[in-house]
Amino acid sequence: MNQPISKADLHIHSRFSTRAADWVLRRFDFPASYSDPLQTYQRLRDAGMQYVTITDHNTIAGCLEIAHLPGVIFGEEVTVHFPDEECRVHILVWGLTETQHREIQALRENIFEFQKYLAAANLAHAVAHPFQSPNDKLTPLHFQKLILLFRHFEGINGRYLARWSEAAQFSLKALTPRTIETFVARTGIEPTHGEPWKKVFVGGSDDHGGVYPGRAWTETPRCDTAAEFLKNIREGQCSPSGEGGTPLSLAHGTYNTAFQFLKAKFALKPGDPAAGLIEKGFSRFMEGKDPTEFTLAEKIGFLAQGIASGKVFELAMAGNTSLWKELSSYFSKPEVKAAMARETAGVVEPERRAFLMANLVANQLGYRFFTQFIAQLSAGKFIESIQTISPLVPIAGLLSPYLHALRQPRREMARELTRTAAGTIPPFLQNTKRAWFTDTLEDVNGVATTIRKMIAAGVASGHDVKVMTCRSEIGDHGIPLMNFPPVGEFELPEYELQRLSFPPVLAILEHLIRENYSELIISTPGPLGLAALLAAKTLGIRAVGIYHTDFPQYVRILTDDSFMETLTWDFMHWFYSQLDIVYVNSEDYRKCWVDRGIPAEKLKILPRGLDTKLFSRSRREADFWRSRGLREGEVGMLFVGRISKEKNLDTLVAATRRLAEWQTPVRPLFVGDGPYLAEMKKLLPDAIFTGYLKGEDLARAYASADFFVFPSTTDTFGNVVIEAQACGLPVIVSDVGGPRDLVSHGKDGFVTKALDSIELSEAIRRLSEDPGLRERLGAAARAKVENRDWTEAFQKFWTNSPE
């Protein structure tokens, strides 16, 4: 029984498509495709295609090889230029002759002349992958011109991510006569066909690697000849079918192209035992299996080939086996086998299994070189440190099919194109799903607190936002969280107790694109932040950064090295200049970044909330500090935060000693932990140290003290400052850093000269000796912050990004 439809994969390539899209592959002279036309023809027929075409780039050579076979349609994918502009597009053409091919090639530098020729010759044609310009120069104006020039568009492309085909169909199906009138007025171009708001869609696999031919196709009513099939297409009696691509399937095809090319280039012949070994290893990789593990029957087969060919001893020579030995040695390690089994457990799709395996190997090799780099850098060997990471370059080359496949058109461009044609943005392109990257969620600091509170407020408000982190162990914070197990962890040089993770970059990229995240929020410029920045650039999505910590100041204090401080500034400037928006915590830091070259329009103040029910004067307990050693008649001077040198605690020590000389009845109270704790206990033996407190215990510690001192010059905001204010405490801060913006001198606290222990001790003495002053300033402090709210802060933050 004949099927009621006719089918053809109208977009597919062979070895005659010679120019690879990926720059790295071009550098190695890899072609765009290496599929054999005859094999492609047979596979398409086996897949149920009644008609077969090959659409190589600007050539019909592939079609000529199969011209003698039944059901063949001559086709090609033509690279066409907008004259006097940089933009190029691809147009699929079918049913042409050799003469027409030559004439088309002469006209493709001018899209307008090219279109006129196709119309006059009555050739079936369509705009290929409308949202993928081969040189990434497509603009909304070019898209409008394409709409006026062409009736047919590729509606399903089996190579590129399915959502771009969906976006193209969404845009083109929403056209109206009024929209067309607007385009005509804007471009000065008249439509080349009737009812230009009604478009026709076709489909094709766009297969390059010979792995997925027939993944997408075009259907028409049943017809008996290729001429009828093309007539149906020209008249719009057709529709696309099949499925779009994924980055992993695209990369899978690219690996197959590269392998087939190398096999031919190095003349690996079928009877050669080395060829059998390599080909079987590659086949296992394409199946997502250990490429060095073979069955006993396969091993006997390789040996038999070697004996039959007389090359058994040549195969065993060290030069031929060294690389294989290295690979076999690596994959035979029990920990590697266990990791591969764990990563691929339950995964059926061969392209995903292969990706997980490649990701595992690349991560471990990359981490090995990275740790060597950190060791050399810590030892001050800068030249040697660069040399240690040079092997990462060939690793990146081997992974380039994945890097190329994961790279996407800039999301904002896709939004502009859909808005141009449809007047709106489809839900899957709206900025409604965001990932918040942080290295420090588990740490006890203001950054972690801000992230947890903001995420919780956002989720409670119905927003789709999730934390992305990378830790070997992660607690339950009651917020949406994705933890990528680290490849390894290392200590941050000169910053005790702080560990950073080496993230699995490819896994992060693939997860973000698969889950369709529309914006990345980056809280820290560490390894995970760098991975997020790479992801944003690769995936073409918006990246927002938050400058939480004054790292250059930290480096200066911790290393006492101005050169290291300069290097840190250079890195920070590079990192934050790559982002679309940068949030800072104060006007002071905003001005600082403007002075350092970040455009003012990219800088915004980060909204901050506060739990004013938790942090309240009502939490005060007279015995809280007395039970810990505070004596009757003493005034409690509180510090909360990381006990570390960069908090300028030495200034507080000097001020406290001066107060002791004046016999001021003040007792230092410290809440927190850190690498300087043991030293502080020696310097201030009479002080009270509680260690880390949280929740209601922390709120009681604030409310039960008499005033708050925070001498840090490195904090960009100071959550602890507003928490103290909410508990009704007057606050003393320095005039350098973000906290000074939180205190009005003489109204709700004091702002003293940075690192000046004399001025700090004077402010402390004033508050210690005047209970009435403490009461007035504390009440003003509470009034200043009582309207802060995390939900409102998050809403302001969320709406600063375009929907």
From TrEMBL:
CDD domains: GT4-like, PHP_HisPPase. One of its GO terms (molecular function) is glycosyltransferase activity. This is Glycosyltransferase. InterPro entries: Glyco_trans_1, Glyco_trans_4-like_N, Glycosyltransferase_grp1, Pol/His_phosphatase_N, Pol/histidinol_Pase-like. It comes from Terrimicrobium sacchariphilum. Keywords: Transferase. Pfam families: Glyco_transf_4 (PF13439), Glycos_transf_1 (PF00534). Residues 8-82 form the Polymerase/histidinol phosphatase N-terminal domain. It comes from the Bacteria.
